[in-house]
Design brief:
The complex is a heterodimer of chains A (383) and B (734). Helices cover 66% and strands 0% of the residues of chain A. With 383 residues, chain A is mostly helical. Chain B contains 25 helices and 24 strands. Chain B has an eight-stranded mixed beta sheet, sandwiched between helices. An eight-stranded mixed beta sheet of chain B has the order 18-19-20-15-21-22-24-23, with helices on both faces. Chain B starts with 15 loop residues before the first strand and ends in a 41-residue tail after the last strand. Classes of the chains: A mainly alpha (383), B alpha/beta (734). Bound molecules: iron/sulfur cluster (2 copies). One iron/sulfur cluster (SF4) binds next to loops of chain B. Chain B: Its main location: membrane.
Chain lengths: 383, 734
C-alpha cells in the first residue's frame, strides 16, 4: 500500500481512507464517524474539497522518488559542501587529511617498502633522490618507512576515535535521557572507566595481549578504553539539559519513538561537540601510541612513526645533526595530521548549524531582523 | 519641519530635556542596510512621563539606545541627539568622547532594561553593586548609600536586607526594583526604561508602574517608558508615542491617543489589544506583518496594512500633521481615519457568552483531576543530599474536571503552580499524590517512569509550549517537524500524502504559500508562524485535550487576538478541549468568554477561584482574583489610581507557605481565622454561570465575620507600605 513512487495521490488516499484507524479520524465532522467513509469517497474522486477541513487541500505538486533523492543529496552532500567550500580551514584541513589518506592507500603502492641496508647509511634529507628523505643508520629509507606506517596509524586512529565517540555518545545519551535505573547503571560503568588509570592499563594489557596488539584496530580501541568515559559524562550532562527542552517534551507527548528522539531530536544538538571530541580522540590516540612506542612499551613488528622516533633517539639524533631528518620526518608527519584534524573539526561545526545551512540553500528568510541591542548596551552601562 | 513648531507657544525650549533631530540608526547586513530607526525627530519634555509604544521590531529599543548613543556595534547613529541639562549649555550626545559618555550615562541619563536583571554579578552582594557604581563615578560612598537606602525603601524594599543579600536570593520583581534604585543612585534627570517589567508578573508589573509615579515626583525625574504593552502605560504616561516600522506614527497626550487616536495603526492597535472591558467582537488582529527593516515600504510604511491607503500613501512619506494641540500624526488621511475607523474600547457592553460554562460542564469529564499534588525536591531525590533539601509543593490538592469541548484557562502569578498542574493534567508531569483520569481511566496505570503506558491516552493529551522558538527543534525543517506525528499516528499515509496534509494544514492556518515554508528551518519563521506550526503539529495527532502554555504571550500584541482566534477555530473544527495557561487576565477573558469556558485562578499551588469568564472578570469573589483584576490595566487614561488591593507586593516563600488561607499574608480582608483555618470551595454558581471561590467571605455565616482583622496590626495601616511584610523570601514571623 505504501507506494513511494509517483502514483497519483488521490488513489493513495482511497486506500488510506478505507483502512481502519485511518486519517479520517483526523477529519472532524459533526456527523460522526459514519459520515467519514462517504466523505472519503468524495475526496478520493479527487478534488471535492471541503473548505472547512484543513486536511483537504490538494497539492498540485507530486513528489517523485527523484525529488526525494534530490533532497537527500541537497541535505547531506551539496549543503555541507557549499558551506565548507567557503571556509579556508575546512579546505586546508581536508587537503591535509586527504593527503594522508592518499599516502596511506595509494602511496604504499608507489613507494617500495624498505629493508636494512637498502641504501647507504645516514644519508641526509634531499641529498640523494633515491632516498629523498634520507636513510637511517641501518640504511633504511626514511620516506618508505614513513609511508608504509601510515595505513596502520590511520586505522588505529580511526578505530580509536570511532570507538570513543560511539561508546561515549551511546552511554551519555541513553543515560541522560532515560534517567532512573538505566542512568544509575550506565553512570556507574562510566565512573568506573573514568577512574581507570589509562596508561598503566594499556601497558599491562599490551603485555598480556601481545599477539593482538600488532593489530592497529585492537590497539586503537585499547588506547581509547579510558577516553570514552569522559565524553560519556559530558554528553550525559548536556542531554540532561536538552531533555527538558520544549521540543523534546512535545516529541514525548506525541509518543515519537525513543530512538527518534535520541537520534534525531537530541543528537543533532550534540553533533558539533561530538565531532570536536572525535578529532581530539584521534589526536590523543596517535600521541599516546607514538609515546608508547617511543618508550618502547608497546611491542612492535614493523617500523612506524613512534618506533622511528625511538630509533632515531637511540641513534643519538638529538645531538647528531646528520640524523635530524630521521627524527624530524615522523614528527612532522604526526603534527601534520593533528593540525589537519583540528582545522577540519573547527570548520565542521558550521555544517551542523541550521542557520548557516539555511543560508547555503535557496530557501527564504534571513537572520533575525533587529540586532539584539540589550547585551551590548548592558555592557556599556556597567562601569 | 519639526513636529513641534506648532507648539512653540506652549512649550519653551527650557522644557526640553532631550531632543532628537533626524536621528537614524543603521546596520549593514548581508542583504543591504537595515534602518532600525528612520529619521526620528522628537523631543522629551522635562518632568514628563513619555510612553513609547511599539511592537517587537518597531525600533523601540533602538530609540532608547540612540538617546544615550549606546547603539551596539556595528550600528551607526546619524542625526543629532541633544541633551539639555538643567543648567549649562546643551550637550550633543553623539559627539561625546568615551569618557564623557560614561559620565553622562548614569549621572545625567540612566537606563533600566528588561534583560538587565541578569546584569548583577552573582557573587557580589547588592551593596557592592551600589558601591562600585558610586566609586566609579567618584561619588561620596556614604552619602550615596544613604540615598540608596532611601530609594530602596521608596520601592517598598527593606534596605538593610536588600543591601546584604546576594542577587540569587531575590525574586525577579525585587531584582528589578533594586535595579531601578541602582539606576537612580546618582540622581540622574532622565530615566529611560526599555520594557522594564516585561519579564515580570502582572501584579508585580502593575505594582512597579504605580511606584514609578511617586518616584518620579520625589526625585524630579523625567521618564521615557518603552513598552509593547499599551495598557500598562496608559494611565501612567503624560504623552504617548506610537512607533511603527522604525518611525513615529503618532505622538500626543495620552488622553488623545487613547480616546481619539488619529493614525490608522494606533486605532488598529487599540482594537487588537486584549482587555477586560471591550466587547469581544470588536477585538481584531491587524492583518499582515511588520515590515522588514531592509525593505521598508515606500511612502507611508503602514500602507500595505492600512485600510485607507491610496496612491498618495504609497509614494509620499506622510509628514507630521497637526491633529490638535500637541498631537502629531504621520498620516495623510488622519481625519478620515477618525471618522471611518472604529475603535473598540469606547463603549462597554456586556456581550453574551456563546455557550454557558455550566452547560459544558455536564456529562462525563474528559480529564478529571482529583486531589492532585505535585511536590518537587523530595528529600530522597538525589545522590547529593545535604540533609536540608527543601521541598516545594507546586500543586497542593487540586481537583478539576475538564469536559469534552471545554476550555479552562488557568491564571496566576509565576510560581503559583499553574504550569505544573497543567502538565500533570496532560500526563507530562508525574503527580506525587492524587489521580488523573482520562475518560474514567487512570492515566498513570501501568506507567513506567515518566511515560504513560496507554498510547491512546498519550495521543489524546498534547501540549503547545510558551516559547515557539524552543518548541520546534532548530535542526529540523518544517517538513520533518510536521511529518513525525503523521508517521507515528498515521502510518498508512505515504510520503506524498503526508506532504499534502502538511501543505493543507499550513495553508489553513494562514501560512502561505505553504510550498515555500515546508523546507524552512524554524529560525526562518517569525514567532507567529512558529507558534502556528507548533499548534498544527499537536493537532495532527488528533488530540482530545491540548495544553496551551502561555501560547500567545511571546507574540506581538497585534498578533495575539489572531492567534487566539485561530486556536478557537481549531477547537471548533477538531472538537478538542483546551487547557490554557495565562498570566494575563485579558487574554484569559478573551479565550474563556469567546468559547464559554472557565477561568481558574491559582495562588501558591491552590485553586482559589474558578468560574465562567463573565463572573471572574465582572464579579470576582476571592480577594486574590480582585487583585489580579486590579493589576490588569485598562485602556483608559484616568482610571482612578486605586490603591493596591494587596498588603504586600511580593509572594511568600513557596517552600514555606503561610498557614490557613495562603493568601492571608497579602489579603486586605484577612482576619485572624484566615491564618489558622483553610477555606474550602463554596459553590456560588447559578444556572448560567459557574463560580466557586475558596474564601471565608463567600460564606454568609462563618466564624470569619466575628474574627479580628489582622490587616492593621502594624502602626501604619497603609496598604503595602510596611517594609517588614513585603520581604517575601523570608516568611513572616508574625
Ligand atoms: S498615510 Fe495612508 S497608508 Fe499611511 S496610515 Fe495614513 S492612510 Fe494609511
Ligand atoms: S480566607 Fe481570609 S485571607 Fe483568605 S482570601 Fe478570604 S478573607 Fe482573604
Amino acid at each position: 500500500m505504501r507506494s513511494e513512487d509517483d502514483s497519483t495521490t488521490t488513489n493513495e488516499s482511497t486506500d488510506a481512507a478505507g483502512a481502519p484507524g485511518s486519517v479520517d479520524e483526523l477529519i472532524p465532522d459533526s456527523g460522526g464517524s459514519t459520515d467519514d467513509r462517504s466523505d472519503a469517497t468524495v475526496r478520493s474522486d479527487g478534488g471535492t474539497v471541503d473548505t472547512d477541513s484543513p486536511f483537504e487541500t490538494t497539492s498540485t505538486v507530486t513528489e517523485t522518488r527523484g525529488d526525494r533523492i534530490d533532497r537527500f543529496l541537497e541535505e547531506y552532500i551539496r549543503t555541507p559542501w557549499s558551506i565548507l567550500r567557503n571556509d579556508w580551514r575546512a579546505m586546508v584541513g581536508f587537503a591535509i587529511v586527504s593527503f594522508y589518506i592518499i599516502v596511506g592507500t595509494v602511496g604504499v603502492y608507489l613507494v617500495d617498502s624498505t629493508y636494512p641496508a637498502h641504501g647507504p647509511q645516514m644519508v641526509g634529507a634531499f641529498e640523494n633522490w633515491d632516498f629523498p628523505l634520507g636513510t637511517t643508520s641501518a640504511g633504511r629509507d626514511v620516506l618508505a618507512m614513513t609511508v608504509h606506517s601510515t595505513p596502520s596509524i590511520l586505522i588505529m586512529m580511526a578505530s580509536g576515535a570511532v570507538f570513543t565517540i560511539v561508546v561515549g555518545t551511546f552511554f551519555g545519551v541513553v543515560a541522560g535521557y532515560k534517567g532512573g535505573i538505566v542512568d544509575t547503571a550506565l553512570s556507574t560503568i562510566t565512573d568506573v572507566f573514568i577512574n581507570i588509570p589509562g596508561l598503566p592499563l594499556v601497558i599491562v594489557l599490551a603485555t598480556l595481549l601481545e599477539d593482538w596488539i600488532n593489530n592497529p584496530v585492537t590497539l586503537g580501541v585499547l588506547l581509547a578504553v579510558a577516553a570514552w568515559a569522559g565524553l560519556a559524562r559530558a554528553i550525559r550532562s548536556q542531554v540532561l539539559t536538552i531533555r527538558n527542552e520544549s521540543f523534546v517534551e512535545s516529541a514525548r507527548a506525541m509518543d515519537l519513538s525513543t530512538r527518534w528522539i535520541l537520534t534525531k531530536e537530541i543528537l543533532p544538538h550534540l553533533m558539533p561537540y561530538i565531532v570536536v571530541n572525535m578529532v581530539n580522540a584521534a589526536r590523543t590516540i596517535i600521541f599516546a601510541a607514538v609515546a608508547l612506542y617511543f618508550l618502547g612499551v608497546l611491542p612492535f613488528s614493523d617500523a612506524n612513526w613512534g618506533v622511528m622516533l625511538n630509533n632515531a633517539y637511540h641513534a643519538g639524533a638529538l645531538y647528531r645533526p646528520s640524523a635530524y631528518h630521521w627524527l624530524l620526518t615522523p614528527m612532522i608527519a604526526i603534527s601534520g595530521i593533528a593540525i589537519g584534524l583540528i582545522l577540519l573539526a573547527q570548520s565542521l561545526d558550521r555544517v551542523f548549524n541550521p542557520r548557516i545551512r539555511a543560508r547555503h540553500q535557496d530557501v527564504g528568510g534571513d537572520e533575525t531582523l533587529e540586532p539584539d541591542a540589550e547585551d551590548d548596551t548592558k555592557e556599556m552601562m556597567n562601569v | 519641519m519639526t513636529a513641534f513648531q506648532s507648539d512653540a507657544t506652549t512649550r519653551t525650549n527650557d522644557d526640553v530635556i532631550v531632543e532628537l533631530r533626524d536621528t537614524s540608526v543603521e546596520f549593514g547586513m548581508d542583504r543591504g542596510t537595515s534602518k532600525v530607526l528612520n529619521e526620528v525627530t522628537t523631543e522629551v519634555y522635562r518632568d514628563e512621563i513619555l510612553g513609547v509604544i511599539g511592537e517587537s521590531g518597531s525600533g523601540k529599543s533602538m530609540f532608547a539606545s540612540a538617546m544615550l548613543d549606546a547603539v551596539p556595534e556595528p550600528g551607526v547613529t546619524t542625526g543629532e541627539v541633544i541633551y539639555h541639562p538643567e543648567e549649562g549649555d546643551p550637550i550633543s550626545v553623539t559627539d561625546l568622547s568615551k569618557e564623557e559618555l560614561r559620565q553622562f550615562r548614569w549621572e545625567e541619563v540612566s537606563m533600566v532594561f528588561q534583560g538587565a536583571m541578569s546584569s548583577f554579578n552573582p557573587v557580589l552582594p547588592i551593596k557592592t553593586h551600589f558601591v562600585e557604581t558610586l566609586s566609579a563615578h567618584d561619588y561620596d560612598i556614604r552619602r550615596g548609600l544613604t540615598r540608596a537606602k532611601e530609594l530602596l525603601s521608596d520601592l517598598y524594599l527593606d534596605p538593610e536586607r536588600m543591601l546584604n543579600s546576594y542577587p540569587h536570593e531575590l525574586s525577579g520583581g525585587m531584582k528589578q526594583r533594586v535595579l531601578i534604585a541602582l539606576s537612580l543612585v546618582l540622581d540622574p534627570d532622565l530615566l529611560v526604561m526599555d520594557e522594564p517589567t516585561a519579564a515580570l508578573d502582572l501584579l508585580m508589573q502593575r505594582s512597579i508602574v504605580s511606584l514609578l509615579e511617586d518616584i518620579k515626583e520625589k526625585h524630579d525625574l523625567t521618564i521615557v517608558f518603552i513598552t509593547h504593552d499599551l495598557p500598562l502605560v496608559a494611565d501612567l504616561a503624560d504623552r504617548l508615542a506610537v512607533l511603527y516600522a522604525f518611525e513615529f506614527a503618532e505622538l500626543g497626550p495620552s488622553e488623545r491617543i487613547l480616546e481619539e487616536p488619529a493614525h490608522p495603526y494606533t486605532r488598529a492597535l487599540l482594537n487588537a489589544t486584549p482587555n477586560l472591558s471591550a466587547p469581544l467582537e470588536e477585538m481584531r488582529p491587524i492583518a499582515g506583518e511588520s515590515p522588514d527593516p531592509v525593505n521598508i515600504p515606500e511612502g507611508c510604511s503602514y500602507h500595505p496594512r492600512c485600510p485607507l491607503a491610496d496612491e498618495e500613501c504609497e509614494t509620499i512619506d506622510p509628514g507630521p500633521y497637526d491633529a490638535g494641540p500637541d498631537h502629531d500624526v504621520h498620516c495623510h488621511h488622519w481625519e478620515q481615519s477618525i471618522e471611518d475607523l472604529d475603535i473598540a474600547f469606547e463603549e462597554t457592553s456586556d456581550s453574551g457568552t456563546t455557550a454557558s460554562a455550566v452547560e459544558k460542564a455536564s456529562g462525563d469529564p474528559l480529564v478529571s483531576l482529583s486531589d492532585v499534588e505535585v511536590t518537587f525536591g523530595s528529600a530522597n531525590d538525589g545522590w547529593l543530599d545535604f540533609g536540608e533539601s527543601e521541598t516545594v509543593t507546586a500543586v497542593d490538592g487540586i481537583s478539576l474536571d475538564i469536559y469534552d469541548n471545554d476550555v479552562v484557562v488557568l491564571v496566576g502569578e509565576s510560581g503559583c503552580g499553574k504550569t505544573t498542574l497543567a502538565k500533570t493534567a496532560v500526563g507530562l508531569q508525574t503527580p506525587t499524590g492524587g489521580t488523573i483520569e482520562y475518560r474514567g481511566r487512570d492515566i498513570w496505570e501501568g506507567a513506567s517512569g515518566s511515560t504513560l503506558a496507554d498510547k491512546e491516552i498519550r495521543r489524546a493529551l498534547q501540549i503547545v509550549h510558551q516559547d515557539p522558538g524552543a518548541s520546534l527543534n532548530s535542526h529540523h525543517r518544517v517538513r520533518t517537524i510536521l511529518e513525525q506525528p503523521l508517521k507515528r499516528w498515521h502510518s498508512d499515509l505515504d510520503g506524498n500524502d503526508r506532504r499534502e496534509r502538511i501543505l493543507g494544514m499550513l495553508e489553513y492556518v494562514g501560512i502561505s504559500p505553504p510550498q515555500d515554508y515546508i523546507d524552512r528551518y524554524p529560525h526562518q519563521l517569525s514567532g507567529g508562524e512558529q507558534q502556528r506550526i507548533a499548534l498544527i503539529r499537536s493537532m495532527l495527532v488528533n488530540p482530545d485535550l491540548i495544553l496551551a502554555d502561555e501560547a500567545v504571550s511571546a507574540l506581538d500584541v497585534s498578533l495575539r487576538v489572531g492567534m487566539m482566534d485561530l486556536m478557537i477555530e481549531l477547537q471548533d473544527t477538531f472538537d478538542t478541549s483546551f487547557l490554557f495557561i495565562s498570566h494575563d487576565l485579558s487574554n484569559a477573558r478573551y479565550i474563556a468568554e469567546k468559547t464559554g469556558g472557565r477561568i481558574g485562578v491559582m495562588y501558591l499551588g491552590e485553586l482559589v477561584e474558578i468560574g465562567s469568564a463573565e463572573r471572574i472578570i465582572h464579579d470576582p469573589q476571592h480577594p486574590y482574583t480582585k487583585a489580579l483584576r486590579w493589576a490588569t490595566p485598562e485602556l483608559e487614561v484616568d482610571q482612578v489610581a486605586e490603591e493596591s488591593p494587596m498588603r504586600s507586593i511580593d509572594i511568600p516563600d513557596p517552600t514555606n507557605p503561610p498557614s490557613g488561607c495562603r493568601y492571608h499574608t497579602r489579603c486586605p480582608e484577612a482576619r485572624e481565622v484566615c491564618a489558622t483555618q483553610t477555606p474550602e470551595f463554596v459553590d456560588l454558581g447559578d444556572d448560567v454561570h459557574a463560580q466557586k471561590s475558596a474564601c471565608f467571605r463567600a460564606y454568609d455565616d462563618h466564624e470569619y465575620w466575628q474574627s479580628e482583622s489582622i490587616t492593621d496590626e502594624h502602626a501604619d495601616a497603609n496598604v503595602g507600605t510596611d517594609t517588614d511584610t513585603d520581604s517575601g523570601v523570608t516568611s513572616e514571623s508574625d
